[in-house]
Amino acid sequence: MATAYWKDDTAAKPDSFWSSGHTPTLIAAFLYFDLAFMVWVLLGPLAPDIAKTLLLTPAQKGLMVAVPTLAGALLRVVNGLLVDRIGPKRAGAISQIIVIAGLFSAWTLGVNSFAGTLALGVILGFAGASFAIALPLASRWYPPEHQGKAMGLAGMGNSGTVLAALFAPTLAKLFGWNAVLGLACLPLTLVFVAYMVMAKDAPNAPPARKLTEYFLPLKQGDAWWLMGFYAVTFGGFVGLAASLPIYFTDRFGLTTITAGYCTAACVFAGSLVRPMGGALADKVGGVKALSVVFVVAAAALAGVGQADSVEAALTLFVLAMLALGTGNGAVFQLVPQRFAAEIGVMTGLVGMAGGIGGFYLASSLGLAKQLTGSFQSGFLIFATLALIAFATLTMVKGRWRREWTAADGVRI
């Protein structure tokens, strides 16, 4: 299998992660991803205030916070193609400019209708699609034995969802929720400048291929399995990140600021363990790590439906996010082992599946609340999906270990 990384053997020690790649690019990828994820889920912490202003129903609230997730999912495929054709740095620059311009326009013109929130959600989808750029930007610099750590550290940028949960409700209370859209442009612009200075494309970029060749991985069942597993792990993570402010305010009557703190605690847990999940998968194998992840996540999400206090719900959500965050890192330890030569497009395809999973969870929770008066059925269905993922992983893991050609010392 062709490798997709660059390594300076004259300067790097085989077992040294920090000397085996390009640290400034890794930092730039993290910063870009972090701020992009901050604004990707921005409508979640603002949802209670927006819903009050625009008189939205529970289903409309769920759809509003889910649209950025769906848009980001679909745009990840586009970004995956751009990464392989024009390089990740250039693709990232274009995406950042679109997001900054979109937020600035929404701030100056105002968002005055439900349709306006959906249009803004599509623009924020470009931020969510950063996943398909930031990860290959960093990954191409690192050898197979460090893929889990490199992808995990770059992917830890999903911690930006913590920033949104912590600061957006407070800023909305001080200046109004529409002003938060304009304020977000300030850190985004600073990170854009740092990104342009620090990021560098790896010198081993694959040659441009025909458009149809980018979708060849979809002819292989392994691509669909990996996409399905990520739809559960990342879909659960981002779906909860977008929905928890609504859940805590509707279910327990918390203020938007307190709900933001609770959401931040949950999201921080999931973000913190992502690189640990990659490192764990490097050590014990992605299959073994994912098996535990699916069982723990299913148990925690099923238990949430029975939680009758903020403390109980918060504990279960943190446990679920710890599992899902670990799973995010584990899936992307497996992807380059099977699809190293197609890492750009596979990052986009797998990321797309994750976004679709998040869209489903966020929108279904709102619909469940409107139809049944409770979020319980939405959580139970997603817990069932986690158990189905565990069952299918158990079915394919033997074949993967027999057929996949992993690098020396890399566990599957």
Task: Note the main attributes of this structure.
disordered N terminus, mainly alpha, single chain, 16 helices, 412 residues
Derived from helix and strand composition plus strand pairing, the structural class reads mainly alpha
Task: Write the H/E string, N to C.
Answer: HHHHHHHHHHHHHHHH
Count of individual helical segments:
16
Q: Could you estimate the helical fraction of the residues in percent?
A: over 70%
Shape: globular
Strand content: under 5%
**Overall mean pLDDT score?**
87
Q: How many runs of DSSP E, i.e. beta strands?
A: 0
Radius of gyration: 20 Å
Main beta sheet, described? Answer: none
- Provide the low-confidence segments as ranges: 1-14
Q: Terminal Cα separation, in Å?
A: 15 Å
Question: What layout of secondary structure does this protein have?
Answer:
Blueprint (H helix, E strand, L loop, with lengths): L22 H18 L2 H12 L3 H29 L1 H22 L4 H15 L2 H9 L7 H9 L4 H16 L1 H7 L1 H14 L22 H32 L3 H29 L1 H19 L5 H29 L4 H30 L3 H28 L9
How would you summarize this macromolecular structure in one to three sentences?
Helix content is 77%, strand content 0%. It is mainly alpha-helical.
